[in-house]
Design a protein that fits this description.
The protein is α+β, with helices and mostly antiparallel strands. Helix 9 runs antiparallel to helix 10. The protein contains 17 helices and ten strands.
Length: 348
């Protein structure tokens, strides 16, 4: 069977299977239909491998009153298969993770019927229709923002879903400048350690630091391009899709492939200078010298990331947004955790 990308499959499923049932049984029902939220297809990175769990003919339908009759109707009348894919889902590893499976009975479908404000609050930890404050931006992992603003909207009677996605499409300028400054801050904290660890013979430690710095540079490039960085599985794919990024990608690849710290440092220096040039192209600050320089009196080449932090005029805590200083999936996956942590770090 020829693989159909998930967003295309969901769009067809809505148009050919879900929408006709809604029109027949609930004529004139105002609603929005979309495929957003978790799932590799929402970010455009799904492949045939993705079909083994949480993938298939699925979408969200947002209504003012998510009456159970709507879901029950779909369970009874949806086709049991669509374009060769089952519309029935069974537990995979646990009740919260499901996969497609044939059925002879009613369909346990993945057409999620919900009120928009309820769904958004569950996905983000706050209701964006009521306004978005600094705490909301900083406490929401970029993966979640990418999930809510990615994917596609297939239908929107009231325009409310479209308006919410527009409001969340990118940070306000002051938040954007702040997270950029915090990205540079993270680089400045470790940029000399590649050489220092290598100098004492710790090539493994030097390589680990280089990998951490490469990750920060990749996230920084995405932020500069106004793209929410996804979580680790898709970070490289999102980074590689940026326009004109290939020279930086090659430099970072060289740094991570190097087995000797001086070579590693040289490749990182090339990447630093190209990312610094991208910063200047944004014109958020006065142009800064994009060349690397010695780390004070020590013989290690760095970009001097603190210069960029200062130029962006960041004030207060430079910890950043929650996923700039928290790396635990168990923490980032629960909005009550991320909002509580941001309150502690930034002050309630």
């Amino acid at each position: 069977m020829t693989f159909i990308p998930g967003l295309q499959l969901s769009r067809l499923f809505y148009a050919e299977a879900v929408r006709p049932l809604l029109d027949r049984h609930f004529p004139g029902l105002p609603h929005a239909a979309a495929r957003i939220g978790s799932g590799s297809e929402v970010l455009g990175f799904d492949t045939a491998r993705s079909a083994d769990h949480e993938w298939g003919p699925r979408l969200q339908v947002f209504v003012a009153d998510p009456a159970p009759e709507i879901g029950e109707l779909l369970s009874r009348e949806l086709p049991k298969e669509f374009r060769g894919y089952p519309t029935h889902f069974v537990p995979a590893d646990n009740e919260h993770i499901r996969k497609m499976a044939p059925t002879d009975g009613p369909v346990f479908h993945r057409v999620d019927i919900a009120r928009l404000t309820d769904w958004m609050t569950g996905a983000l930890g706050f209701d964006p229709t009521a306004g978005i404050g600094a705490r909301d931006w900083l406490a929401t992992p970029t993966q979640r923002l990418a999930e809510v603003t990615g994917g596609a909207v297939f239908h929107d009677d009231t325009g409310e879903l479209t308006a919410v996605r527009s409001a969340l499409s990118w940070y306000p300028d002051e938040i954007w400048r702040y997270v950029l400054a915090c990205g540079w801050q993270r680089i400045g904290q470790e940029e000399a350690f590649v050489g220092r660890a290598g100098e004492v013979g710790d090539e493994l430690g030097s390589a680990v630091v280089a990998a951490r710095l490469a990750r920060e540079l990749m996230r920084l490039c995405l932020l500069m391009a106004r793209v929410y960085p996804p979580y680790s599985k898709w970070l490289g794919s999102a980074f590689a899709s940026l326009p004109g990024i290939e020279p930086i990608r090659l430099a970072l690849t060289g740094a991570l492939a190097a087995t000797e710290w001086r070579v590693r440092e040289r490749f990182l220096g090339e990447a630093y200078e190209m990312v610094a040039a991208r910063h200047n192209e944004l014109r958020l600050t006065e142009p800064l010298d994009p060349r690397t320089r010695p780390y004070f009196s020590r013989p290690f080449r760095v970009i001097g990331a603190g210069r960029f932090v200062a130029a962006l005029h960041a004030t207060g805590s430079l910890a950043g947004a929650v996923d700039q200083f928290v790396d635990s999936t168990d923490v980032l996956g629960r909005s009550e955790n991320t909002r509580g942590i941001v309150d502690v770090v930034h002050g309630a």
